[in-house]
Structure prediction request, 577 residues.
Amino acid sequence: MDPNYIPQDVVRCDLCKTAIVEYFCDFCHVNLCKPCIGEHISADYGKHIIVPILQRKFTLIYPKCETHDNEVCKYQCKDCNTFLCSHCTASKQHNKAHEFVKLEDAFYAKKKKIQMDTEELEKHILPTYEEIAKELEIQIASLDGEYTKLSNAISNEKKELQRQVDNAFNQLEKEIGEIKVKHHNILKKHLNEIKQLQSRMQHTLIALTEMEESNEISSTIKFSSENEEFRKLPPKVNVSIPKFISKQRENEYLCSLIGKLTPLSSILEERVFTAKKPNTRELLDEPEVLNTIKTGYEDLYSVTCLNEEQIWTSGENADIKCFNIQGVLQKSIKSKSGKWSGDIALNRDGALLFSEWKTRTVYKVKNDKTEEIITLQEWRPTNLCVTSSGDLLVTMFCDNHVSMLSFFRAIVHSAGILATGRYQSNIEAKVVRYAGSTVKQTIQFDDEGQPLYSGNSYIKYISENRNLDICVADCIAGAVVVVKQAGKLRFRYTGPPSPTKNKPFKPFGITTDSQSRILTADSDNHCIHILDSNGQFLRYIDNCELKCPYDLCVDNNDSLFVCERSKGNVKKIRFVK
Prediction:
C-alpha cells in the first residue's frame, strides 16, 4: 500500500504500539492500554499517576537542567536568558542583581501572547491581506475591459483617416500591448508578494495553533512573534491606464496626425495597518429568486462558480456544462470515464477540477486539455473544494468492502438510501488537503480517536469558511461537521434547536458567504439552513419554491446558486442586503 494513502490511525498505546489507549500517566505523559500499566509503573510505583484517558490533565513539562543531573528547571534568569533549577539559583554564576522569574509565569504569559497573536492574525491581519489581494485581482480582471476601451478609441480615430495610416495605427496597437504587459506584470508582481505573505501567515497560524495546544515549555518560551512584520502592510499599487491623446489634423507628419499614448505610470502608496471589523451584510427577511437556469440534466448534482459571470454544473451523465448568467450554454466537457463525475470545482486561475470515483482520480481541465492531478489507491474521491490559499480539499472514502454496484446505486438513489438504509457498508471517510498533487493534511479522527465523519455515506460536500474552518455536510450523520484549519473539531450542527420541518435533517450541498455564514441544503425538507460561523441556526430559505435543493455555491457578490436535483434547474437567489 502506498504510504501516502495510509489513513490516519486512532490513538495507540505508547508501549505496545498496537492496543487502543484506555489510560494515561499524568506524571510521565504516556498513553497506555490496560495490560501495559503494570510494565509502566513497575520501576517506581509511587511517582506515577494513572487516570482514564478522558481524565488526563497534562501537567507542565519543565526542561531538564543542563548543569545538575536529575533536576528540572523552574526558573529563568532574565539577565542571562537561561533556564535554572533550584541549585542554579543559589550558584555564584547568578549574583543577587540578577532577576529570576518562574517558568510557569513566563509560560502562561507567553501562552496569552500566542493567543492574542493568533486572534489578531486570524481576525484582522489576514482579512486585510485578503482585501488587498482581492483589490489587485479585480484590477487585473478589469484590465482587458479598460484596454479594450482604449483600443476602441484608437480604432474610431483610425476610421477617420485614410488607408495609408494603417502602419501607424498598428504601431500604436503594439505599444498598447507592450504597456498592458508591463501593467499586468506590475500588478501580478505585487499580488504574488501579497500571496506569499498570506501563505506565510497561514503557516504561522497553523504553528501558533499547535503551540497554543502544546505544553512544551522550551518551544513556547522561544516563540517569537511575527505579527509586527505582518502589520507592515505592503504599499498600495496605483497604476494609471494610459490615455489616447489625439491631435488636430494639419499638414504634419502622418504619425503626429494620429496622436500618442500617455506613458504607463506606477506609484507605490504607503498603507498603514488598522484593525477593523468587516462590512456586515445582513440577511434579507424574504430571499428572492433572481434567475432560473435550465441545465437539461434529469438529475443535477453539482454547481460551482468563480465569479458573477458564469457557472459550471454536472449531473447524471458525462457532460460537465458551463452556462453564462443568462442561462446560455457556453461550453461542455466530457468526463474521462464517460459517466457522472463525482464533483466539480474551479481553482483560482479558472481551471476546472472534477473527481471520478470510478478511476479514483481528480482531473484538471485547462485550455481544453485534461490532465490527472491526483490518483488514489484504495480510496475514491468524491467532493472537492478549492481553499483561499489555493489548496484542494477532497472528501474520499475507502472502498475495500464496497462493491461498485452498491456505490453506484448509492449515488444515483441517495434520497431513497437515506430513508431505507440500503447499500450501507462499514466504510471509512476522510478529508485530505492537497497542494498540487502533494498531500499536506489528513482529517479523519477527533481528539478521542473517533471518526469525524460517518462511514455509511459516499456524498460529503465540503466548503472552506472565510475564517479558514473546513465545513463538511455529512448527510447520513444528519450533521454539518466543522473543524479548524488544523483539523480540530469545532462543532457539529444537527439542525435548529426547535425543528419546524417534517423530515429529519440530512444536509447535502454546503457553502459559505462573505460573513462566514454557513449555508447547507436540506433536500428532504426542500429548504436551506443558514448558520453563523459558530454553528448557531439563523433562519431558513424556504420561500423560493425550492424542489430537492442539492448542491450550493456563492459568488463574489454573495448571490446564492442552488441545484434543484430532480428538476435539473439552478436558481440564483439573493439572500443578503
